Amino acid sequence: MKLALVHLRQAGTGGTERYLNQLASHLAATGHDVTIVCRRHEATPHPAVRFAVLHGFALGGVWRVWRFVRDVERHLRETRYDVVMALGRSVGHDVVRLGGGCHATYLELAHAAAGSAWER
After folding, report:
1. Which residues, other chains included, contact 103 with Cβ-Cβ below 8 Å and sequence gap of 6+?
2. Residue 29: exposed, middle, or buried by beta-carbon count in 10 A (0-12, 13-18, 19+)?
3. What is the pTM of this model?
4. Is 78 buried (19+), middle (13-18) or exposed (0-12) by CB count in 10 A?
């Protein structure tokens, strides 16, 4: 099966990135044709995993994400995959895995030690 795993970046650190690498490695080891569609990458998680690097010009974080989404749309129109799985902000996928947890819980945990709202 020809699979695309879509995430802004592929790296050795980060929760979503580690999940991406383990999934890509497992799928490639079981004989699937795996492409990681990303803006930038580090080392391949498995020798059979390929990369489609979509690094369009962007200034700033918001424009970078917007540009990546547009580049992914174009790439998916031009390239045939059996299944497209997104691991973050993207469009045009068959499966989505959103990580990072609930933002409200993150804020509670991140600011718990800061005390009052004024101190935060």
Report:
1. none
2. middle
3. 0.80
4. exposed
- Distance (Å, rounded) from C-alpha 7 to C-alpha 5? 7
- Backbone phi, psi, residue 63, to 5°: -65, -35
- Asked if residues 93 and 12 have their Cβ atoms less than 8 Å apart, the reply is no
| Per-residue pLDDT reduced to its tens digit, 58-97 | 888 888 888 999 999 999 999 999 999 999 877 778 888 8
Which residues face 9 on adjacent strands? 40
Per-residue tokens: 18? 């580690």
Helix (H) or strand (E) holding 109: helix 103-111
Residue 65 φ/ψ region, left for φ over 0, alpha for ψ in the -120 to 50 degree band, beta for the rest: alpha
User: What number of other Cβ atoms are within 10 A of residue 52's Cβ?
Assistant: 18
Q: State whether residue 20 is helix, strand or coil.
A: helix
Nearest to 42 by CA among 13, 4, 84, 75: 13
